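Run: sequence + manganese (II) ion -> complex structure.
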Amino acid sequence: MIIAIKRGTAPEAVRTFIALLEKQGVKVHISEGASQTVLGLVGDTTGVDEKSLQAHHLVEKVIRVQEPYKRANRLFHPEDTRIDITGSDGGVRHIGAGYLGIIAGPCSVETREQILQVAQGVKQAGAGFLRGGAFKPRTSPYSFQGLGCEGLDLLREAKRETGLPIVTELMAIHQLEVFDEVDIIQVGARNMQNFTLLKELGHCRKPILLKRGYAATITELLMAAEYIMAGGNDRIILCERGIRTFDSYTRNTLDLSAIPALKKQSHLPVVVDPSHATGLSWMVPSMAKAAVAAGADGLILEVHNDPENARCDGEQSITPAVFAVLMQVLQKYAAIEGRAMYGRV
Ligand code: PEP
Ligand code: MN
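>> structure
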């Protein structure tokens, strides 16, 4: 249930009203917009009398929320959410609410030279964040599983050298112990409905990049975000990374329509991963541009200094040179739409 408070109501009066609502056994989520305060009621609202609320002198409107997701719902938070992340260089990067966040780097951290070279390359081209997997979810147990803690050490070194905040995947909650210096925690497609993991991440204070499962609906993705938000962590970045369809020409099928759909339903920023969506490096720049044109708040791209010899996902990795050309086009796209590229700090 959503309650829009009349414009101009004193904050003290709103607080008293919230206390009254909480006495009825519901939790109240407050969204203070530039012009209006909106209260979102979560929990069991059956005991709340809608008619008497509607008659309350502070209330402008009461709306019943049909969707099962509440905190992730745009009705609860009409304005776009902006996620702010400070790099070790002191620069603040924003994602969402008019800011494009570009995350780039290899599928997995392989060697010191590899991660440092790619990190320098993407930074020079204007990326805002460095990605790199240390713990990799591989379909085969015999494939390279990532360097684990050693990979995290190398990512930390790349972070120190470039100032770029780092994004890496967490597969099990105990790994949080070694994620201290990780700036954005990625939850992979395979773990999108690992509810135990999602609940634990709800208690964590770091932003979460939540990737859509390859057979997950828009509602299921938003429910996964809701799991994390219900625990108190509302810094979620949604990620469309392709879904499984009948066609095998591309690795997955990029669901571009997920971008406007998610942004209509939710206030959370939406980024797109054209690398895993297509599986084909030559297609990545086109799909990256399409995603930004469709309203994405950012991209996560696999970039490798030597794609042919990559230990993981080389066929979908672009080189730093291709990334640099793409970034120049994206800067222009962002400018046309009056959106800022946070990357240059
Ligand atoms: C990745 O980004 O490294 C990855 C494994 O992606 P996904 O979970 O989308 O397959
Ligand atoms: Mn990959």
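>> summary
The pocket of manganese (II) ion (ligand 2) is lined by residues 107, 276, 302, 312-313 (CB under 6 Å). Residues 2-63 form a domain with the Alpha-Beta Plaits fold (CATH 3.30.70.1140).
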